[in-house]
Design goal:
This protein has one domain: Rossmann fold (3-Layer(aba) Sandwich). The protein is 33% helix and 15% strand. A six-stranded parallel sheet has the order 2-1-3-4-7-8, with helices on both faces. The protein is globular and about 40 Å long. 42% of the residues are buried. It comes from Nonomuraea jabiensis. Pfam families: Abhydrolase_6.
């Protein structure tokens, strides 16, 4: 199975490096994406939009021969929103969407418009801006490595409104890998009809997996994350 790995804010395709081996050992073909404007710290990202990131994923989906079967999209954090909009654009080409510590946004939603913006981009903030749950297992060494590799994200990727158009997206199976929040907590939020869970509640088939750690399991528990993704996808 071709598995497209979509990173969240501040990260490029290399952020999946320690997750990839478990997917390959399971017989899958992972494709870790570096999205537009995230090629380097010096890249020009001033005009990059959320749609540009979605279109980049759709282009990769379209690059595979349909005769070879459907693809799986895996999105971490804000990458989950990008995966969801890409599945909306190509619902007939996506076998499953895996949301890593993320949930799909509904029409008009956004990734995060509260992050500090500097000259049209969002640098990785100081750790104090994050909640304690985000930083579980992210020790000093991992924090230093993360900050060294972090690339500012285009501001509009985080603040542009999501646009959805094809309700067939609700027929695409999904998996939520819950890290900083438990699946029990997520189900409780859904029962309460909290706004950010309403799109997820409309998906007809959702599996839930607990992987207790902080918001960046690709750094804190990469092997377990790879196995969880492989299990959610099923046989190669």
């Amino acid at each position: 199975m071709d598995i497209i790995l979509i990173p969240g804010l501040w990260l490029d395709g290399s952020s999946w490096d320690e997750v990839v081996p478990a997917l390959e050992q399971a017989g899958h073909r992972p494709h870790a994406l570096t999205l537009p404007g995230m090629e380097s710290k010096d890249a020009d990202r001033s005009e990059i939009t959320l749609r540009d990131h979605v279109d980049a994923v759709v282009k990769v989906i379209d690059s595979f021969d349909p005769a070879g079967g459907k693809v799986v999209l895996v999105g971490h954090s804000g990458g989950g929103a990008i995966a969801h909009v890409a599945a909306d654009a190509r619902p007939d080409r996506v076998a499953r969407v895996v949301y890593v510590d993320s949930v799909p946004p509904g029409e008009g939603g956004l990734i995060n418009d509260e992050l500090p913006v500097d000259n049209g981009e969002i640098p990785l903030p100081d750790w104090g801006l994050f909640e304690a749950e985000d930083l579980i297992d992210l020790d000093d060494e991992l924090r230093a490595a993360f900050r060294a590799r972090a690339i500012p994200s285009p501001a509009r990727v985080a603040s542009d409104r999501v646009r959805l158009s094809d309700e067939r997206r609700y027929d695409v199976p999904a998996t939520v890998i819950a890290c900083e929040f438990s699946t029990a907590t997520l189900r409780k939020w859904m029962e309460q009809s909290l706004a950010f869970t309403q799109e997820l509640a409309k998906i007809r088939h959702v599996d839930y997996v607990d992987l207790p750690t902080g918001h960046w399991p690709q750094f804190t528990r990469p092997e377990e994350l790879g196995r969880a993704i492989a299990t959610s996808v099923g046989p190669a």
